[in-house]
Amino acid sequence: MIYPLVEESDRAELQAATTMAKELAARPEFRPFPVGLLHGQMPSEEKDAVMTRFTGGEIRLLVATTVVEVGIDVPNATCLLIEHPERYGLSQLHQLRGRVGRGRHPSVCVLFRGAGLPPEAVSRLERFATTDDGFALAEIDLSLRGQGDVVGTRQHGRPEFRLADPWRIPV
User: Fold this and answer.
1) DSSP secondary structure, 32-80, as one string
2) What b/e readout covers 24-37, taking b as 16+ CB neighbours within 10 angstroms?
3) pLDDT tens digits, 119-128
4) In terms of Cα–Cα distance, which of 43, 141, 55 is closest to 94?
5) Are 31 and 42 in contact (CB under 8 A)?
């Protein structure tokens, strides 16, 4: 299960990984499935220990942030739930979805989106749900969000080029 926050915040009404890991571990229906927690603020040794326990099957339900986006290979992982997928870019969602289905068992990725999303966000998630080509998703994401500054810190939005867009010049 992927959550956008490590801890709850007063600034956003989003589920947090630490809170949900505790809640899930306390629920009777999840007692047969040991719950683990993984996020980027944990010391490296602790993260490694959690992943070793998850890979070995000791942890059956892993609650995490996007720290699992790249470099995690657990072939027996078959189900991924992403809370608040509207908070992520399409390429990032694709990377997360790639954490399951690496073994011989069928897999599924489920998105739990918030209510009352703007139509643009719903459309983006629908495009994600119907496309499994990472290159196509990256192009869709770029066209929807823009590339930001070529030089600078802005990570999204339309460039301020007056004569040409360097991303559209034929090579």
Assistant:
1) TS-EEEE-TTS-HHHHHHHHHHHHTTS--EEEE-GGGSSS---TT--EE
2) bbeeeeeeeeebbb
3) 989 999 999 9
4) 141
5) no
How is the chain split among helix, strand and coil, in percent rounded to 5? 35, 10, 50
Given the DSSP bridges, would you call strands 79-83 and 61-64 parallel, antiparallel or unpaired? unpaired
Q: Which of 84, 157, 91 is nearest to 128 (CA)?
A: 91
* pLDDT at residue 27 in the model: 95
C-alpha angle 115-128-161 in degrees, rounded to nearest 5 = 100
Token pair 């801890």 is at which residue? 7
Distance CA 43, CA 22 (A): 19
Distance CA 76, CA 102 (A): 7
Q: How much is the pLDDT for 161? A: 55
